């Protein structure tokens, strides 16, 4: 039996078809050279809007030598992985969900024995990629099997089930089966083929008759049909297999189902007249919105405004460092007002900072004014729609304070919807502020279809049909009910309530629904407690445990939201405990649990965590409020020019200097032969001379760990890790985590590289408008003060791990009255220094914040050891 020497489990997220640099790393379901994929099967069983998906593949290492074989499965972000098993030459690995700390400890123990390897997690547009890799000898047989579960959410009148198919090669036995069972009947089912025209006739939908409770969709191309061309050896299957369906609805009271001791109530009434809307659009027009973001936002707003009716009222607020109102009051959605609003939006020119707090305050005040003056119909729906791509940089910038301010003045009848544009937006903040104020948040990806994403989101909330909905049950009949009161119901959506059914002598369960529309309404419906279970066992491909798992799924999702909004540590701990208990009981991989995959004798282990949500990391504005690791908040930044800011905690001062070198030169920042760590940066230049100067910036940063031969290279396009045999890479659009051979990379809005838990380097990407005549994208570098170097560390930054004694005296007015001059005594030198400001991008990654420091002239001469040219090295991996 062959031993498994280098297993690695990876969980990550990617968008749909990416550029090559991403797709080469993530897209192929089966990776490896000289391998034979015998089969690849996907089976999805959807029962009452709840899907259980199984992906199986059988692979043979048909090469002449041992190699790593990878298995990737892309799943929807909202899905929970429930299990993974793998069989390698008779050795079976079985997965179990455990508390994350427990799983990581067991994994670490295995890794210490050389029985486990790295973890990768990454986020991007609409999917998550589970990836596992195993090193096996020639001739090995490997079987992979992954299970995940997901609840179908109704949007725009239908449910959508996406399966991501990218086998990466031809497969003799390739098959996809989707089985749908809906007790009330299926009113519509269709497939959306994004795999290519050649597959249109191969997708078969089997449904006996309309309103039948079950459907079977099958996709089974043979080898020849999979080829890109008649003689091609590459597979043409690369894309999303989408099934859309809707169900029959007998009553506006909804559909109540009872199974396995649990109930689920689906509420989606139709044939109701839309309620009038009062909408304030709050649009970020700061400098960071320049280019495609603003263009797509304007395009989307043109279409959204056309959707308004005479019954609706609206206004537009645009903001940067200032806040402006197109109209100080709500106006009707007449053709004249809409035309004027379109013209206003078309003329917006993005620039300046971001004052989110003041913009939201003005929006709420506008609704309050209209309400207090009796200008808002009591049956109408009032909402604020915020569109922004960045963190606040002007006015109130503390996120918790902004949340508190909005929460304080928002009325219960108002809702806030947040749309975050771009990969580096603090979506966590936008989500919290929306959830707190009866709305939802949506991430909008700044690509070619951003306008369509904005329009689609608006379509989902543009037709409110009901307000103040309550779905209730007799108290002695149910327990542990999920959220059952809702602020609004929108056309084309669905409200879902689940819970446990208590033992009772009654054979039926009844629900009572009340809501407010143009008139107050009350509806009730019931369900036989045993009928559905009897029906489910008759259908071979139904998922009999759907109600139990759906209740747990909804409950955990709601608890995760509660945890995010928890006001106290005690509340957060209580909710955390509830999430972990449910996740372990129902075997869901959540943000608080992990999937530990063990061999039968528990000697070899693989670990899969759930992906992290993109958040601000070290030294951002949120971190400075106390949420970061303390030692990372005092650091030595290196940004454009490139300018250096050295924090000297012993002297309680910051010292700045520029390095005036040439494009292409590689500067050593840290050279530590004792730990084997070297950090270098290569300079790039601006596009042309500006103000008689060709500015230089860091375009590439390299972090090398020589003992294990691992190198991390960060450019303005990519982040890559290599150990000579294994290469991993991803773009700045991803959110990722990689751990390999002592190096950990965490990529959120920035990159943090950690070596052996002792040395950290943070890198920021500064984007500029691509058509800017002068500026280019560049990198900023931040290195903590208390990295644990060896005594021999040196480099432009490394040398200051031993803080020099600094004395500043003779402070006097300089030639510029705003910049004082002084004499600095350091390292036996007396230097003329100038008091001034430098930009530090830790707190504000877009505009930068000003740091008051003593500036050393002549490229740091006298403050750094030797001359700056002494720090120029021949390549990115060289020590001094």
UniProtKB/TrEMBL annotation:
Keyword Secreted attributed: yes
Keyword rRNA processing (UniProt): no
Name assigned to this protein: Uncharacterized protein
Main subcellular localisation: secreted
Domain VWFA positions: 278-461
PANTHER family associated with the record: INTER-ALPHA-TRYPSIN INHIBITOR HEAVY CHAIN FAMILY MEMBER, INTER-ALPHA-TRYPSIN INHIBITOR HEAVY CHAIN H2
Entry's family note: Belongs to the ITIH family.
UniProt organism field: Anabas testudineus
Biological processes, Gene Ontology terms: hyaluronan metabolic process
GO molecular function annotation: serine-type endopeptidase inhibitor activity
Domain of life: Eukaryota
Record's GO cellular component terms: extracellular region
